[in-house]
Amino acid sequence: MIKIAYHSLYAHPLPEGHRFPMLKYELIPGQLLHEGIITPDHLFEPEPLSEDIVLLSHDPAYWAQLRDFTLPPREQRRIGFPLNAQLVERELRIAQGTIDGALFAKEYGLAFNVAGGTHHAGSNWGEGFCLLNDQAIAANYLLNKGLFKRILIIDLDVHQGNGTAQILENEPRVFTFSMHGEKNFPFRKEISDLDIGLDADTGDDAYLSLLAETLPELYQKHQPDFVFYLSGVDVLSTDKLGKLAMSKAGCKERDSLVFQFCRKHGLPVQVSMGGGYSPAIKDIVEAHCNTFKTGIDLLS
């Protein structure tokens, strides 16, 4: 059975100006249930991540500042909102949801996290609304437990997965791939194992052609036995922060290419949703729901 991590804290209310993007975390599972794509049995609520697992990926001093709410104001501004207990618990549950999802994917082939994709969090910093890096944490967890030998992270959010690249830069068992807007946040990029920077206004044809060429090369280079997929929908032409020119149909085809790649090579895949900032919430929710539908169609 396909399993999907969701918790009410995913839609945790934030200060004015940040609330709108959080609506999607309630609306995505609601829409999937409404359409009959999933049933309540598909959803599970993750517990908070334990400290020992956090420390597989994050610096002890940084984690202590998050845990004790002593992160300096300058670092809180870098994250984008003030630190509080609910926010830290939210990040802990998101990261645990991605670990649990990876374990479900090992069993069933595919699992999702309604949230996640917190790829701007580095080992000792938070940034861009990210405090803890869920997929880097889960990758280190799988390796630490000896569950997989070679992991591929496919990050197709419009923003580079800088924190993921930094955390895993000295881990040869994980291959980090980020295809993102070159002239977009973060303006100081880290070095992934493979970075593809896209010009502004890159549309469906160029994007999909490049991705289709790249995925087979990734398998040949790394021979992974597990995949994490970050499926941000901020690649849409309607996105306020994205600067690309993809349609919803193109975004859905992007997902299809990734899931077909996983099916071809028999790779279990955990999917985290990443960003989406179109002015109309229906555009965000539809594009994210397409990711779920495409994955379920191809891998369940």
UniProtKB/TrEMBL annotation:
Q: What protein name does the entry list?
A: Deacetylase
Name the Pfam families on file: Hist_deacetyl
**Superkingdom per UniProt:** Bacteria
Q: What does the record list as GO biological process?
A: epigenetic regulation of gene expression
Give the Histone deacetylase domain ranges.
24-290
Give the record's keywords alphabetically: Hydrolase
InterPro entries per UniProt: HDAC_classIV, HDACs, His_deacetylse_dom, His_deacetylse_dom_sf, Ureohydrolase_dom_sf
CDD domains on file: HDAC_classIV (cd09993)
Q: Which family does the record claim for this protein?
A: Belongs to the histone deacetylase family.
Molecular function terms from GO: histone deacetylase activity; hydrolase activity
- Gene3D superfamilies named among the record's database cross-references: Histone deacetylase domain (3.40.800.20)
